[in-house]
């Protein structure tokens, strides 16, 4: 379980996160929605320890992210896929995927290679194992990024606007992979502007506005007139996104 209690984060005088309370159970797919600057990406960065909270706590399967002795244990429970791929340019797709299992989990190289090739096959990239990032399309690089996160066998997958740098065709490729993972029961915390996709795969939807958690509802209720749409700010956001 990912447990967030009273999470607060400031950049100077600006409150990016303001008293966030959130619980993500194994098997859930939780989409985080909100306008740009609402704190969505910062929340993901705080969960994996890339940003430190100013107040409150975050734990992943009982491991406190703010405790340096427990941070690595917390990170082993979750895998993160970023907006900008963050692949090592001097390594092949296969090498990018196997690096952490070999170095961190001490998986034998032959085993790591075999598992990485199976992951690449699952996302339709069997023939691109030896390609470097510069030889891959944006959609292919993002699929390698997903494989890299999954190679660590995380209990939770954190996804931060993973389609924001992609064109519509590449976005469709990546969303298809995520839909497959969701159907297989992968636990995901998914920051996105893809509203229809969030509607289709989410078990819950969280809405952030100016650093505050404005709604945390089952997806069906959030998108229904008596749920999220009953709140003017959410209705305004969804209306604007549907026209974009």
UniProtKB/TrEMBL annotation:
It holds the Pfam family ABC_tran. One of its GO terms (cellular component) is plasma membrane. Residues 2-235 form the ABC transporter domain. Keywords: Amino-acid transport, ATP-binding, Cell membrane, Membrane, Nucleotide-binding, Transport. CDD domains: ABC_HisP_GlnQ. InterPro entries: AAA+_ATPase, ABC_ATPase_HisP-typ, ABC_transporter-like_ATP-bd, ABC_transporter-like_CS, MetN_ABC_transporter-like, P-loop_NTPase. It is a peripheral membrane protein. PROSITE patterns: ABC_TRANSPORTER_1, ABC_TRANSPORTER_2. It comes from the Bacteria. GO terms for molecular function: ABC-type amino acid transporter activity; ATP binding; ATP hydrolysis activity. It is found in: Cell membrane. PANTHER family: AMINO ACID IMPORT ATP-BINDING PROTEIN, GLUTAMATE_ASPARTATE IMPORT ATP-BINDING PROTEIN GLTL. Belongs to the ABC transporter superfamily. This is ATP-binding cassette domain-containing protein. The lineage of its organism: Bacteria, Pseudomonadati, Pseudomonadota, Betaproteobacteria, Burkholderiales.
């Amino acid at each position: 379980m990912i447990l967030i209690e009273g999470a607060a984060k400031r950049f100077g005088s600006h409150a990016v996160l303001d008293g966030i309370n959130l619980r993500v159970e194994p098997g859930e797919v939780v989409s985080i929605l909100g306008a740009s600057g609402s704190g969505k990406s910062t929340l993901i960065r705080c969960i994996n320890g890339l940003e430190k909270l100013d107040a409150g706590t975050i734990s992943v399967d009982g491991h406190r992210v703010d405790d340096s002795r427990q941070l690595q244990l917390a990170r082993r429970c979750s895998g993160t896929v970023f907006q900008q791929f963050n692949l090592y340019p001097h390594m092949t797709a296969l090498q990018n995927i196997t690096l952490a299992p070999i170095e961190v989990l001490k998986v034998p190289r032959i085993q790591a290679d075999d598992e990485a090739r199976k992951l690449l096959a699952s996302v339709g990239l069997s023939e691109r194992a030896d390609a470097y990032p510069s030889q891959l399309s944006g959609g292919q690089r993002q699929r390698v990024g997903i494989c890299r996160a999954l190679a660590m066998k995380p209990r939770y997958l954190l996804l931060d606007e993973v389609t924001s740098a992609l064109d519509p065709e590449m976005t469709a490729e990546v969303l298809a992979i995520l839909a497959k993972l969701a159907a297989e029961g992968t636990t995901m915390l998914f920051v996105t502007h893809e509203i229809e996709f969030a509607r289709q795969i989410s078990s819950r939807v969280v809405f952030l506005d100016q650093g505050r958690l404005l709604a945390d509802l089952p997806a069906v209720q959030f998108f229904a007139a008596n749920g999220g749409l009953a709140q003017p700010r959410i209705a305004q956001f969804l209306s604007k996104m549907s026209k974009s």
